[in-house]
Amino acid sequence: MDCIIDSDSRRLLVLSRRAGESILIGNDIEVLVVALLPPTVRFKIVVRSAGDNAPYCSLVSCDANKHIRVRDRIELAVRQVRRREARLVILAPPTVRILRSELSGDRRVCDRDAPANGSKADFNECQHPSETGIPIGK
User: Most CB atoms closer than 10 Å: which of 4, 20, 21, 119?
Assistant: First the structure.
């Protein structure tokens, strides 16, 4: 795991994740690696907004060397995809806590085994799934 501060005063964290493992960003974002299909990673991103009991879930695919803007000043990039793991880069302000989910106890919002077909039952608490809700760029 590498950590670097970029010129925009954001922290750059590089770590490896396997399918079924997740990352917690701040108190309200969870990024679960659903599948590794080189050169693509499939993520389930769960964002819980303040004062809203229903989290927003999105199923997103991202190729190596592309990024996903999760929230203002928070980006997730795929550096490399192998058969069993992906090297991910998280760029966030230094005040935002970033943890591997196994270090935080059980804070998962959505069930990792739930199929992502968009129904409320399959997303557990998630009521607003979207295939295109989070922008992907190069």
Answer: 21
